[in-house]
Fold this sequence. Notes:
3 copies of one chain form a homotrimer.
Chain A: E1 2-11, E2 17-20, H1 22-32, E3 37-42, E4 48-53, H2 57-70, H3 86-94, E5 98-104, E6 107-108, E7 115-120, E8 126-135
Antiparallel strand pairs in A: 1-8, 2-7, 3-5, 3-8, 4-7, 5-6
Amino acid sequence: MKVYSKSIRVKTSSSVEFVNITDKVVEAIRESGVKDGLVNIFVPHTTVGLYINEDESGLKRDIDTVLSKLVPQGAGYMHDRVDYNAHAHIRSTIISPSITIPLNGHRLGLGTWQSIFLAEFDGPRERRLIIQVIGV
Amino acid sequence: MKVYSKSIRVKTSSSVEFVNITDKVVEAIRESGVKDGLVNIFVPHTTVGLYINEDESGLKRDIDTVLSKLVPQGAGYMHDRVDYNAHAHIRSTIISPSITIPLNGHRLGLGTWQSIFLAEFDGPRERRLIIQVIGV
Amino acid sequence: MKVYSKSIRVKTSSSVEFVNITDKVVEAIRESGVKDGLVNIFVPHTTVGLYINEDESGLKRDIDTVLSKLVPQGAGYMHDRVDYNAHAHIRSTIISPSITIPLNGHRLGLGTWQSIFLAEFDGPRERRLIIQVIGV
């Protein structure tokens, strides 16, 4: 049984940005040599999330639009007295910082239209990503 | 250490439908022979999600009602110019396509009232489900 | 390869309450002796969720405020005819009962500002928490 861990830096360039990190995950799996098991992706930040969906520019805008409507910036949050980013923390609570995907025959279990995204909600910043591969 | 993987087809019969897949997961665990570890369930689709909650018909309607209010169909989404299902993609982003559950003594760690649901948001379709069991 | 499992009781003291359970998870990891792998935390309940974010009292209030606005109590839910807690079930569907975190060098992969919270949506109650550590 093997456990392979890789830490990666991702630079975001605007306040809200959804970065396709699928290639980085695929590369870590190749490096790991693990054939069958699980891949966990985790961001050690409180204003970032991870999600899986289609990499279509309109859809990425739509996801931002909906999250901005459900959790608007500056809506009188108590946390904004500490730091003006409560909306980013709350969106990160809804879009979790952790995702787990099956790995079979050295291949990630993603479907044809699925990509993995790091969702920046309080950028631009340099973010860290942990890719953990566990299996045989 | 064992890794057992099973791919299952699930047919949905309406545009929105929450299908209780607990029995299929329990069956895969039995087949795996794994006693203690983790079970990851994953749907390789961008308009489907997985959630755990009670199998009560009223509650299933309520969850649909709330998601339909938070992410209404046809609300001027950019992705709807490509394919008229942006609402399904966005709901799938909120209700993640992956869930992980502990396994102890050959038993899934679900509580008395918990069932596992495949949430179809753009049916009817035939969907695929990956059940990955890892442990000893 | 080791699998270590621990079941913990957590008492909540009001209807909605976010309890920081990070110390309990860290303690379970120490007991497990596992150095590298994955930690899965799971609540076997349908009106509780788990999330990771900052332990700041204003932010905790903000998260409650937003969830209460998105999924208000008593909004004519069908499940409320069975038991007056549909809002808690639906919030638990959005804030999942399962979270997975990487473990490296005996250390949980949490970032500086991240804490793990049990989100009670239908308390006060005694809740159960399963911490599963898997790895080498």
